[in-house]
Amino acid sequence: MIGRISSVQIYQSGLDSILEAQARLTKIQEQVATGKRIQTPSDDPGAAAEIIRLRSELNQVAAYQRNADQATNSLLFEESAIAGAESVLQRVRELAVRGANDALLSAEDREIIASEIDGLRDSLLSIANTRNADGEYIFAGDTVNTEAFSEAGGLVTYNGSGGPRLINIASGIRIQVNDSGAELFQNAPAGNGAFEVEVPNANVGTGVVRTTGYDNSYPGTEDYTISFSTGGSGQLQYTVTGSVSGALGAAQDFTPGEAITFAGASVVIDGEPDVTDTFTVTSGGTQSAFDTLTELAAALRTSGSTDADAKRVSRVGAAIQNLDANLGQFSKVRTDLGARLNRVDEQNILNDTFNLQVERTISSLEDLDFATAITELNLQIVALEAAQQSYIKTQGLSLFNFL
Fold first, then answer.
1. Domain total in the chain
2. Per the domain annotation, does 296 fall within a domain?
3. What is the per-residue pLDDT across 38-79, written as a single tens digit (0 to 9) for each?
4. How far is CA 31 from the centre of its chain?
5. pLDDT, tens only, 260-293
6. Do both 64 and 180 map to the same domain?
7. 37, 127, 229, 309 - which has most CB atoms within 10 Å?
8. What distance in Å separates the CA atoms of residue 201 and residue 195, rounded to the nearest whole number?
9. End residue of a domain, out of 235, 255, 284
10. Per residue in 331-353, pLDDT tens?
């Protein structure tokens, strides 16, 4: 049986061919206009899913890059603050060396130096309470909204708490973006790093501590006292007594400027100590930069008698030693800070390389091959024209044309 095809069916079939050709042409035109092969997920479901996954990774890396930029800014800000603190202490050290020159300075000269040191101490405290562009105290640990240091009655107290702040700059990689003010400003090793020598106020002689030293045999587990007495021949002698081990041998003759050695330590005392004088060797311990400046200014203001002058010389020398320790602490933190900055820069390079590779992969999946696309475009134009011409020829056909 021969089926019948109505005129409406003929017209609809021709129209469908035109619409289908137009749809194919429109799609290829959109691809050429955007340069993208995939316009909707249905164009290539597998490639579309992979592109979504890769773009998600790009977004994650972009977040890491923002964190890295924040870390860089924080570290550079801190480095600038530490550089300022180092400049303050370097100036204080210059003043201390000048103040140690007894032969050229009067009490008034030393007072002028002490007053400048007081001002520099205020500057150091201001630096320790530095805030970043967000108003956060950079040396307050993780309590960034609390002032890092406060002062009451001449005593500087650290108010920060917790550990340093960490930021993710890559998957599984966290970078420290600040340092504890306590570690930076208050935890420098006191004295020569192993011990410090203190001169009690009760001393009445003219003994002056000149230099100290130690070797690897120094235990650092107890304190020692150097005390003086008169031997049978009237010779001034000294005895070293450990807080745990007791007297370290018999009394020895004292010679000004000659090293007193014990337990791997050496202390050079000049001048003439009194038989009632003692010098305390305190092992370990830390020294606050603020306390160093306070003690230095107080030492420079000490005068009026030979024993007071001797105490001043010893204490100014001890302050210079502590200043060197404080500067060493700043240098240590600044070196570590520079290493962290380098780590962030290296990760930025790795992130950029990763982004470039991912973008190339995405491009290979979704970008259009223009040579093939232009050929396809021309074919679709020809197909549409053919469909249109065919429709024009068939739309006028009817059985009445053959009757």
1. 2
2. no
3. 656 656 676 667 767 777 888 888 898 999 998 999 999 999
4. 49
5. 999 999 999 999 999 999 999 999 888 999 999 9
6. yes
7. 127
8. 19
9. 284
10. 999 999 999 999 999 988 988 88
Tokens standing for residue 233: 């021949």
Give CA–CA dist 401/319, Å, rounded: 120
C-alpha 75/C-alpha 206 separation (Å) is: 48
Do 380 and 28 form a contact (C-beta atoms < 8 A)? Answer: yes
Which H or E run contains 174?
strand 173-176
Query: Residue 62: in which H helix or E strand, if any?
Result: helix 45-99
Q: What is the dihedral of CA 151, 335, 138, 68, to 10 degrees?
A: 180
95: its two tokens: 């003043």
Task: Provide the phi-psi class of 154: left if phi over 0, else alpha when psi is between -120 and 50, else beta.
Answer: left
Sign of torsion over alpha carbons 43, 47, 52, 54: negative
Q: How far apart are the first and last CA of the chain?
A: 23
The pTM score is 0.76
Position 165 pLDDT exceeds 90: no
Place of tokens 């030979």: 306
